[in-house]
């Protein structure tokens, strides 16, 4: 009754509606396959659905839903939809079916809201898991940084204490000999002034003794 009050559709308008009908059929097949995976296998994901359950629509269903008379009209309609970027797929003439790889989206229906809500909730949960993992890694990195900083401060403190100990020990030794600490360190590093002369005189005396012995031995011969 309502159709009688509407103006007649042109052939282009009818084809556009048929294109959208093909998109609707493809979406129904995807939703059904996704529901089966969730119910029986507890799997999820559109990529898994596309790989395990390709969106195949039999020619018989398309002919009935689109109100077409023969397969030639159906294939021409599908080719037009592909060129219009409404869907992407292939015609399986041997098995008499349309395999849909991609199709545009349709307006959201009320009965689809629960599925969309559940999908978004699952996505949010996945994001929370990833965020929790990142925060844990950041916490570990900060803890490692604090440990390295504490170790560095400990080493610097030990080095400073060691320097103080050496300085105090040197000052105490210098005070015991009533000398300046720096002068005391210099004397510890360098030999006494007469040491080299005594060593040189000892070497000279030893050499003279050897020469005298040599002369006595030669005279006896």
UniProtKB/TrEMBL annotation:
Keywords: Coiled coil, Cytoplasm, Nucleus, Signalosome. GO terms for biological process: COP9 signalosome assembly. One of its GO terms (cellular component) is cytoplasm. Residues 20-123 form the PCI domain. SMART domains: PINT. Residues 181-190 have a biased composition (Basic and acidic residues). Residues 200-209 have a biased composition (Basic residues). It is found in: Cytoplasm; Nucleus. Residues 174-221 are annotated as: Disordered. Signal peptide: none annotated. Residues 145-172 form a coiled coil. Component of the COP9 signalosome complex (CSN), a complex involved in various cellular and developmental processes. The CSN complex is an essential regulator of the ubiquitin (Ubl) conjugation pathway by mediating the deneddylation of the cullin subunits of SCF-type E3 ligase complexes, leading to decrease the Ubl ligase activity of SCF-type complexes such as SCF, CSA or DDB2. The complex is also involved in phosphorylation of p53/TP53, JUN, I-kappa-B-alpha/NFKBIA, ITPK1 and IRF8/ICSBP, possibly via its association with CK2 and PKD kinases. Belongs to the CSN7/EIF3M family. CSN7 subfamily. This is CSN7A protein. The gene is Cops7a.
């Amino acid at each position: 009754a309502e159709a009688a009050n509407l103006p007649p559709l042109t052939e282009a308008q009818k084809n556009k509606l048929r294109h959208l009908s093909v998109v609707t059929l493809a979406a129904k097949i995807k939703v059904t396959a996704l529901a089966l995976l969730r119910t029986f296998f507890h799997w999820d994901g559109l990529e898994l659905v596309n790989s395990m359950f390709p969106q195949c629509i039999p020619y018989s269903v398309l002919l009935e839903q689109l109100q077409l008379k023969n397969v030639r009209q159906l294939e021409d309609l599908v080719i037009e939809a592909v060129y219009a970027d409404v869907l992407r797929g292939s015609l399986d003439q041997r098995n008499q079916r349309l395999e849909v790889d991609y199709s545009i989206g349709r307006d959201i229906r009320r009965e689809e809201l629960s599925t969309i809500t559940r999908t978004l909730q699952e996505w949010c949960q996945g994001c929370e898991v990833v965020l929790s993992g990142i925060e844990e890694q950041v916490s570990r990195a900060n803890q490692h940084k604090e440990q390295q900083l504490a170790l560095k401060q400990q080493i610097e403190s030990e080095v400073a204490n060691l320097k103080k100990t050496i300085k105090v020990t040197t000052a105490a030794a210098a005070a015991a000999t009533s000398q300046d600490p720096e002068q005391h360190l210099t004397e510890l590093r360098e030999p006494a002034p007469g040491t080299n002369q005594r060593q040189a005189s000892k070497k000279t005396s030893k050499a003279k003794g050897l020469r005298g012995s040599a002369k006595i031995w030669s005279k006896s011969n």
